[in-house]
Design a protein that fits this description.
The chain is mainly α and 78 residues long. Helix content is 69%, strand content 0%. It contains 1 helix and no strands. The protein has a domain of 29 residues. The protein starts with a helix and ends in a 23-residue tail after the last helix.
Length: 78
């Protein structure tokens, strides 16, 4: 009888650990996807601004590709 209770406890512990790990992986993948989309948007804006600036060389649009304006990759935090 004791062996069955230990088995149930082990299954519960493994299932709980698996759920926590799956949740963390899902959360991290969503944050990574948001970061990638943000970087793509920044690159596209820079590309379009530079093309527009190339057509009118006397107009300054501020189309420098500055990595400091890119959103930082943060999995846990603000």
């Amino acid at each position: 009888m004791l062996r069955g209770k230990r088995r149930k406890a082990q299954v519960s512990l493994e299932l709980g650990t698996a759920f926590v790990l799956i949740f963390l992986l899902l959360f991290a993948s969503f944050n990574l996807a948001r970061w990638i989309v943000g970087r793509l948007v920044l690159r596209q804006e820079t590309y379009e601004a530079s093309r527009q600036g190339a057509s009118d060389p006397f107009q300054h649009l501020g189309a420098e590709d500055d990595e400091s304006t890119a959103p930082p990759l943060r999995f846990f935090g603000q």
